[in-house]
Write a structure and sequence with these properties.
CATH superfamily of the largest domain in chain A: Dihydrodipicolinate Reductase, domain 2
Oligomer: homodimer
CATH class of the largest domain in chain A: Alpha Beta
CATH architecture of the largest domain in chain A: 2-Layer Sandwich
Mean pLDDT of chain A: 96
Pfam family, one (chains A, B): GFO_IDH_MocA
InterPro entries (chains A, B): Gfo/Idh/MocA-like_OxRdtase_N (IPR000683), Gfo/Idh/MocA_oxidrdct_glycsds (IPR050463), NAD(P)-bd_dom_sf (IPR036291)
Domain Gfo/Idh/MocA-like oxidoreductase N-terminal (chains A, B): 4-113
Organism (chains A, B): Sphingomonas telluris
Distance between the termini of chain A: 48 Å
Protein name (chains A, B): Gfo/Idh/MocA family oxidoreductase
């Protein structure tokens, strides 16, 4: 079977660290071009993504890993050209944009894949099964990291539409929407916004759910200076504990670590992209982005000390 | 045909001014009870909406006109009891809540009607037809009013989840999503938030659209002290002008006022509610609320002088 000719549009840390090696390890794909405004990438490199689309012969698919603000325009153009499109998370800045892309892809009969990489840890389906049908006594999400360590040079994260601490926090949302045994509703969101930024550096969020008997909380913080914590701790009303650590890489059920082996987040994403393309299906779950929007709709905002960029 | 027994839950200005007279004028409905925490309403009055649901015999439908923050819980309970539900605008505080209600109503086989009263001006379908298939040269929404005159005592409007100037502004969004000949995307939203409030007192919003050749802008402002302006001015690239004034009550096409007669916003809402119930259909269009969410997702916020409440 001939490999699917794919290009990467937008070439930064996540493209270099994850997308390129995952494509190299998947025989169903052939990476034929990349584009970035900075001129970085894998040859042949285009500075203008429109030129890439014009010149890359036989192109069938693209992975879009630019900052979120330009994804809608690029993705709409690619869909219009009949290309299958994979979107890094978050799939767009606004919910109207991703809804529009889903409609365009359906009309054109191409695959649109809005990825949530954290869901591709093998712990996620196991945790979902452990929680299925249960009532929940408590949930505590702690998603805390040093922004200077994990987002060096990502100035866009602080600008309007840049998501701030929701950029990593949406990874937690993508996991809980996959494993929590009921719908989650944002009840309140206390956002701390640096005086020189437009997006939050920290967020304290309370959720409600019809299956909850106790408090559901998320604590997102970019100001952690020692180490990092990406944990989701859920206790069921009948006494089970489900603890995901390291962003979902490790899973403990009732205190016992589960022995889980998987392909890795991004290799598994590209495995699924092949399946979706083969079956001409799309996968677009807006719930993680919708929870961020819901946080803003219910938010209390406080200004905090400026960040050093 | 026996009238549909309906109750109003939440009894404030909009219930007294609009819902009660519209129900009185529609022979298909019989208003059998109201509830409000303040004890105001039409007899029999319940202070506790749960008691109303228990005691109102033969109840078939409810209109929920409480502040938005409590609508999801009340509506979910009503749907669970098999009642048809009409929601004042906005249908909920968060998008996850309204999505959940739509799923519950579908599962239960009852009618859920998320109303947008401004759409019930007879100008709206006429304006939509005048713009259908056109490219757009410009759009200017001006939605400006004195908050003290139009929202007396509505302290909730300034609290987290209270919408601020988006409470009237969502009326403009409900009209433009019905008449604009393409999808609208929020590109930027400059929000002015009083230092003693959690919601904006003013918003300057830029939109984009694939059918637009020029600027699309909305200017929402609660600080207007003389008169009020609720206008939507759209010019097509082939020279047509479509101007809605007075919140959609008046329509000018190419400068000429259109002679339009209609039942009135709320009588028309209840006429449609009857149709939906008779046909066991729901009507839930989240786009106006989604545009508010999209404004927050792209927002720049500035603190402005405190409001006097």
């Amino acid at each position: 079977m001939k490999p699917i000719k794919i290009a990467i549009i937008g070439y930064g840390k996540i493209a270099a660290d994850q997308h390129v090696p995952s494509l190299a390890g998947n025989p169903r794909f052939e990476l034929v071009a990349t584009s970035s405004r900075s001129g970085q990438g894998v040859e042949p490199i285009f500075v203008d993504w429109r030129e890439l689309l014009d010149k890359a012969e036989g192109l069938e698919a693209v992975a879009i890993t630019t900052p979120p603000s330009v994804r809608h325009e690029i993705a709409a153009t690619c869909i219009e050209k009949g290309l299958h499109v994979l979107l890094e998370k978050p799939p767009a800045v606004t919910l109207s944009e991703i809804d529009d892309l889903a409609s365009l892809a359906e009309a054109k009969g191409v695959t649109l894949y809005a990825t949530w990489h954290s869901r591709h840890n093998p712990s996620v389906p196991v945790a979902a099964e452990a929680l299925a049908g249960k009532r929940i006594a408590s949930m505590q999400i702690s998603w805390q990291e040093d922004v200077h360590k994990w987002h060096p040079g990502q100035q866009w994260i602080w600008e309007a539409g840049g998501f701030g601490v929701f950029d990593p926090g949406i990874n937690a949302f993508s996991i809980v929407t996959a494993i929590f045994p009921g719908a989650l509703f944002v009840r309140s969101a206390d956002l701390s916004v640096p005086s020189n930024a437009q997006t939050p550096i920290a967020a304290e969020i309370d959720f409600a759910s019809e299956v909850a008997d106790g408090a559901l909380h998320a604590s997102l913080d970019f100001r952690r200076t020692e180490g990092e914590e990406w944990t989701i701790d859920i206790r069921t009303s009948d006494g089970r504990t489900v603890l995901l650590e390291d962003g979902g890489a490790r899973l403990f059920i009732d205190g016992e670590e589960q022995n889980l082996a998987g392909a890795g987040e991004y290799p598994d994403i590209y495995r699924e992209f092949v399946d979706l393309i083969d079956e001409r299906r799309s996968s677009v779950d807006v719930r993680p982005l919708r929870l961020v929007a819901d946080c803003y709709l219910t938010a209390s905002q406080r200004k905090v000390e400026p960040i050093t960029m």
